[in-house]
Design a protein that fits this description.
Blueprint lengths: L22 H14 L3 H11 L7 E2 H7 L4 H13 L3 E6 L2 E6 L3 H13 L2
């Protein structure tokens, strides 16, 4: 991954909102987030972004360089991750920079817990 003082605007999700969320809504939210992880390449992208410091951001080309996939395939996977709420992207001139949404992994795990308990 390249490092060149790029910064990612913080975007996070508040897990506390789940305390007021009913089980059926949690199940729907879990289903939507799970769509984002429904391909091994997307799981790997989340792993890469999760290990990228918050003060940095990943350019699509950086992610392409880390995966054995064509740029068009990586872009499509990034689109799905963005649409399902796992990541956010910012346009930086001709590039798009991506970061994982803060707290999203913990949020997902809490959705699993709340959706599978009795």
């Amino acid at each position: 991954m390249k490092v060149d003082n790029r910064t990612c605007k913080p975007l996070s999700i508040d897990i506390r909102v789940l305390g007021k969320t009913d089980t059926e809504t949690c199940k729907r939210m879990l289903s939507e987030l799970s769509k984002g992880l429904a391909h091994p390449a997307r799981v790997e992208i989340i792993r890469i972004l999760n290990h990228t410091p918050l003060e940095e951001r990943c350019i699509c080309g950086d992610i392409v360089g880390a995966l054995p996939l064509a740029q068009s395939s990586v872009s499509q996977h990034l689109k799905v991750l963005k649409e399902t709420g796992w990541i956010h992207g910012e346009i930086d001139g001709p590039r798009v920079c991506y970061c994982i949404v803060g707290g999203i992994i913990e949020y997902y795990m809490e959705l699993v817990r709340r959706s599978t308990q009795e």
